[in-house]
């Protein structure tokens, strides 16, 4: 007969229990990959949709800035499809840094870089909490 305390152990509340899940998710790896892919896909969409409003409101968006936006959006889409690779999270962090650097081309890209940098930092935090 087992001890009464062992029967009441909650695997979510007690992440230190051997062989038990840290979160209540059925497949935490897949959930985290989906979070990263969704974040990068949303970033790509926002970058592409932001070109015209930046040109109208912010004015003077150079060809180099537009090329940087399109290139970063393409990289985000490719990385969203590669989130299962071990290097994809580091590459996603590098993309956020490149977006911040593209702020040298136009101030609005710096603003987008700050926003998506914070979103990516939150995604990394959630990944660390779920996967341990």
Automatic annotation (TrEMBL):
Residues 1-12, 19-29 have a biased composition (Basic and acidic residues). Coiled coil: none annotated. Residues 1-29 are annotated as: Disordered. It comes from the Bacteria. It comes from Micromonospora purpureochromogenes. InterPro entries: DUF4233 (IPR025327). Keywords: Membrane, Transmembrane, Transmembrane helix. The chain crosses the membrane at residues 31-51, 63-84, 104-124. The keyword Membrane applies. Pfam families: DUF4233. The keyword Transmembrane helix applies. This is DUF4233 domain-containing protein.
């Amino acid at each position: 007969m087992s001890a009464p305390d062992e029967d009441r152990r909650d695997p979510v509340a007690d992440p230190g229990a051997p062989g038990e899940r840290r979160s209540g998710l059925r497949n935490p790896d897949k959930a985290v990959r989906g979070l990263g892919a969704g974040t990068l896909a949303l970033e790509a969409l926002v970058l592409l949709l932001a070109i015209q409003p930046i040109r109208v409101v912010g004015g003077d968006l150079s060809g180099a800035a537009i090329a940087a936006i399109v290139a970063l959006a393409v990289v985000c889409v490719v990385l969203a499809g590669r989130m299962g690779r071990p290097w994809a999270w580091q590459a996603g962090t590098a993309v956020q840094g490149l977006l911040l650097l593209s702020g040298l081309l136009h101030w609005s890209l710096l603003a987008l870089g700050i926003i998506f940098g914070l979103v990516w930092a939150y995604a990394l935090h959630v990944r660390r909490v779920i996967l341990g």
